[in-house]
Structure formats: C-alpha cells, structure tokens
Amino acid sequence: MNCDEVKALLPEVLSGPAGGASAVERGAVEAHLASCAACAREAGLVRRTLDALRDAAGAPADAGAAAAAADAPPVPRFDDVLRAVRARRGRRAIPFLARAAALLLAALAGVAVDRAIARRAPEPAPVADGRESAPAPGPAPAPAPAPAPAPAPSPSPLAGVGPGADLDAAAARQALAARPGGLGASLGVLAALDRGGGRR
Amino acid sequence: MTRPPASRRGDLTPREVALETAFAAHAAGVAALAARLLRDAEAGRDVCQETFVRFDERMDEVRGDPGPWLRAVASNLALDRLRRRRRDARALDALARRAREAEAGAGPGAGGPPDPVLAQERRERVLGALADLPDRQREVVALRVLEGETFPAVARALGISEGSAKVHLRRAVERLRGLLAPLLGLEARVPVERGGRGEEGHP
What pTM, to 2 d.p., does this model score? Predict the structure, then answer.
C-alpha cells in the first residue's frame, strides 16, 4: 500500500471503530503509519479534524448545556407530534383539492363553450356519397383552378378549417390549442397548475 | 415510553401506528442528538418533532431500521438552525476578535483553564464549518463521525452505496481541514474544493 492509498483510507479508518475499511486494509494502514512519518503526520491532522468535530458536537461547556446533553433530554410528546403531522397533512391536502377544483371548472367551461359554438354553427353541407363536404357543386365541374376559397361562413372554432378543407391532424391540434375554451384551454390550465404545483 | 393508551390506539391509522412505533424507539436518541448539537434542550425538542413530521412524509422511502435516517435528518435540521443562528449572530464577530486577541497572547494564560468564550467561539466555528458542507457530506459526517454508525448503516440510511458514503466522507474531511486549518492550527494541505487524494508523493 503506497502513501496515496493510505491517505485516501485515513478518514474511513479514523472516523469510526468498525465497519469502515476492512480489517486487512486497517492493518495495512496501521503498518504503513508505523513506518512512514509523513503519513503518520497526515493521520494526526485528520484525527485532529475529526476530534474537533466530535468535541464541538458533544462536549458541554456549561451546566445548562450539560443538562441538554444529559441522558434524559426532553422529548416531545407523541400527541404533539401527531398533531403536527395531521396539521401538515391538512395543509398539503388543500392545494391538491384546489388544483382538482380548478381542473374541473376548466373542463366544464370547455364543454360549455363547445356546446355554445355547436349551437351557433350552421349545419355542414350534406355529404354526398360518403365524402367530406365539398364546395357546393356547380352546374358543371370547372376544370379551371378554383378562385380563392370563400371565407368560412361561421365563427367556427376551427376557423380556417372550414367545410371542404382537408382536416389533417396537425391542423386540428393547432386549432384546438388556439381555441379560447374547450380542451386546449383545459390543457393550458393543467400545464399551468403543474408548473405552479411542484414540490414544496 | 410515550405510547398512547390502548383505548386511544384505535384512533390511529396504520401509518400513525408505524410513526408511533418509530417515535417510541428513537425519539430520545434524536432529541439528544439535536440538543447536543444545538446546546439547547427546547430547540432539540423542536427539531425532534420536526424530524418525525418529516419521517411521516417520507416513511415509504425509508427501508429497515429508521434510526440512522432519523438521526441524519435531525442533525441536518439542527445544523441548519445553527447556520441561521450563526448568520444572525453579529455578536460572534466580537467573539472572533476576542479570540484573535487571546491567541496573540493578550488573553488569559495559555496554561490556565480554558476560556469559555473562546471554547464557545471555537465550537461555533467548527459546527459552522460542518453546517456549510453540502447536505450529503454533512449527513455522512453526522452519522459516521458524530454518531459512530458503520458505513453499511450510513449507506442504508441515506440510500447510497457504501463506496459513495466513503467518498463523501473523504471529501468532507478534506474540506473541513481546509476550513478549520486556521482555527486548529492545521496545514491546509489539500485544496478545499478538489476531492483529490494526497498529491504529495511519498515513497
């Protein structure tokens, strides 16, 4: 065992009587310290540091402190601990309930907005042969490029994705997220609550 | 000890019964440790209570004997209080001045009885250095050095490996040596922030 290895083991060996370095390591460290003055000096410094810690943590300096460190120190009553535990649990439960109530309200608001919008929106054009509603068929299909599409006639929450347009998933998600109410708003509230409701 | 009467035990949930069992087994030791660190019986009792409140919150994560875990939490709470107390105590500056004057030879004779003010100052500084360690390092020091726990017990209590506990102890001792060198008359051989092994080559 060389000096560096011994020095690395000194805190383990000197910090407690057992359970640190193995007996073999311990013996090797002691043998090395007996023959190496530099490491023995190093061991003395580590020991002084550890002793200073133990002294500071345990050695009473006056009668009052000695009483505090005596064999029978004052212990709280279990009833007091239990009361504190229950009070702390109660405080933890309130933010949880508040979050749950806020989520519920947000979801209800979203549903209400959805219904109001659905009531005001015009019926979509009848769908022929199973296809999504297309622009109103003219007397003859015009092969020429269609003019700019007419604006959607309703204040649909899916503005810009009016009847006739292809409803791809990305557009639908975007529209949902942009809606003032409904699922997008609920998810926004949820995310905000999650951000604000982290660990204590 | 403080076991509630049998008629009342029916009021406790199973979790509270477990809390009560741990309390009966460890409250005295936890309160003694906190009172010893804080030198204040009342503060020790408060820390003991807070320790068991924390235990209730984290009970599911504590495996095996909760004693070392409880003592680690209690020492952390006590050292936190000590740090706050130290931060607030402007009077300590005056104590430090007195200590320096005494060390310079103007104080009571070196061979006489120890000056309680100096002893208190020294104690505050040593525990202050301990309180300033990173949490994990001071937990390991509290359990291993102050409480004399074995490394397997330290590792179990803190949920870390034995090797990790030893590394934390080594770094803590190196750092404390650096912080306490002026106070204890030690050489600050090892850079405080570096966790390196002895860099002086010896045969």
Answer: 0.58
